[in-house]
Amino acid sequence: MVEGYKEVASFAAGDTTLPGREAIEAYRRDGVICLRRAFGPEWLETIEAGIAQAVNGAALNVAVVKPPRDRGAFFTGSRMWLEIETYRCPGQVPGQPLTGEVFPLLRGRGR
Questions:
Q1: H or E stretch including 12?
Q2: Is 67 found in the same domain as 21?
Q3: Cα gap 57→61, rounded to integer Å
Q4: In total, how many domains does the chain have?
Q5: 5: Cβ–Cβ under 8 A, 6 or more apart, which residues?
Q6: Residue 50 lies in domain
Q7: Torsions phi, psi of 2, nearest 5?
Q8: Are residues 81 and 108 in the same domain?
């Protein structure tokens, strides 16, 4: 852990399990949590397909940042859901039935 930074609270999740009370309280307290296994392989494939489309010219406002001494690259863009059809799934991630319920629950407007 980096000095001066608090470790992000981490909780197990799944496509049929909503976050529990402890996760909700941590989100409300800290503003961020890690939900492990919240998204399955189908969702990751959807995101990867959208990134490939964006990098290959489907999105106008895209940048690939590769720092000189870094082995990896960072991909950044804004409002891609307006330009990449793959990202247009309002309130629901394909193959993940609870995604439309999780954020409202964490924000205090769910079950």
A1: strand 10-12
A2: no
A3: 9
A4: 2
A5: none
A6: 40-95
A7: -80, 135
A8: no
| Same domain for 103 and 59 | no
Write the pLDDT tens digit of every residue in 66-96: 888 888 877 787 777 788 887 776 555 555 5
**Do residues 55 and 77 both lie within one domain?**
yes
Q: pTM for the full model?
A: 0.53
The residue type at 91: G
Token code pair at residue 94: 């394909």
One domain for residues 109 and 76: no
Question: What pLDDT does residue 79 have?
Answer: 75
User: On the CB side of 57, how many CA atoms lie within 13 Å of its CA?
Assistant: 0
The whole-angstrom separation of Cα 70 and Cα 52 is 21
DSSP 73: -
Higher-confidence residue: 94 or 17?
17
